Amino acid sequence: MSGLSFTAIDAWWWPWVFILVAGWLANDMWRFLGVAFSGRLTEASPIFTYVKAVATALVAGVIAQLILYPTGDLAATSPWLRLASPAIGFAAFRLARQHIFVGVAAAEAAFVLGWWAGV
Fold first, then answer.
1. How far is CA 46 from the centre of its chain?
2. How far apart are CA 18 and CA 9, in angstroms?
């Protein structure tokens, strides 16, 4: 065996174990570090503000990519439906005094109803 790699062991279960262990290590390492250092951070600290801004930008980028450059079944939907659904969700979010669940539910309902109606 020349090391621990995806193809190191020729067994049906090995890829599943490799994915589980590699996925667990890649994700939980950051969670453990976050717990270890979270007691020393305040919400107004520069590092926390930076991390929050990066996380928000990543989510916004993914949403923009889904709206502007969809793939799969989403590509078959109307661009107007993909643009109107988040706008409706944002309006509902603001009207509901910034209640996140209302905004997400409204955007999802608008998209599903528009898709079902063939918009």
1. 24
2. 10
- Helices in the chain by DSSP H: which ranges? 14-38, 46-68, 79-95, 100-117
| Closest listed residue to residue 71, CA positions, set 80, 82, 55, 60 | 82
Q: What is the pLDDT of residues 54-95, one digit of tens each?
A: 999 999 999 999 999 999 999 999 999 999 999 999 999 999
Residues 6+ apart with CB under 8 A from 84: 110, 114
Query: How many CB atoms within 10 Å of residue 86?
Result: 19
CA atoms within 13 A on the CB side of 77: 24
The amino acid sitting at 97 is R
Q: Give yes or no for a contact between 55 and 61, defined as CB atoms under 8 angstroms apart.
A: no
Q: CB-based contacts of 8: which residues, under 8 Å, 6+ apart?
A: 1, 2, 14
